[in-house]
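Session log. Operator J.P. requested a structure for one protein chain; no other inputs attached. Running the standard single-chain path with token output.
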Amino acid sequence: MSAPVNITNAMSVDVEDYFQVAAFDDIINRSDWDSLPHRVNNNTHKILDIFDQQGIKATFFVLGWVAERYPELVTRIITEGHELASHGYAHQRATRQSRQEFKEDIVKAKKILEDLSGVAVKGYRAPSYSINKSNLWVHDELLESGHQYSSSVYPVKHDLYGIPDAPRFAYRCENGLLEIPITTTRIASKNFPAGGGGFFRLYPYSLSRWIIQRGNQQDQQPSIFYFHPWEIDPDQPRQESASFKSRFRHYLNLDKTESRLKNLLNDFKWDRMDNIFLK
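Structure written below.
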């Protein structure tokens, strides 16, 4: 069964390198980032090639740190008609930042991206979906800094992130900022992750397709799908000193992601976040 033709889903990419993920925070020093092999540039260009072949437009949430080092990547994202959005500057979880540190991070990232691209950056996604009930002031700082929307809330229970009782679909915060939660599917009064990332690699593809169809058909809502450039790169350097849990989460089925992604692009309609939610 195919998805209803009138539902267009949001495709998004969180542009960060393999060594910047939260799972490796405790074993890779930020001061070493520049000395490590960088793979984000080639991997993101590969994703852009795939999107071009499939005629897909998407939203790229780019780290300011990445944009500084690969400005031509930002140029290509804009030139090929994708939305450029912010993933912050240095992939620091908002739950580990003071309000002032967070403000400085998002302002710095937004300026870098806008200076390089010449376009206004409307969207933001917190690293590791690190908005919870303890730091909802993040939404005020985002609005004050000129962002129009956030896609940073995951309405699930997880050890690293999540607001389980948050609205499942796009909603206005008290200050008017639009929050676009990552997609979940609701079964027996519980929300289950359905937006991509590690769960896309964990679930059989048939299950991922079913839960997106379910959201389109039962909820009559667009799905928000996300993944990272390192998830299509099974040959990336391995962090053998990481915990088993971290290695399992990070390396599971990396060799299957690209083919699954191509199936996903064929099975559903996709567009940029701003085209779907800001019109």
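Operator note: The chain has one domain: 9-277.
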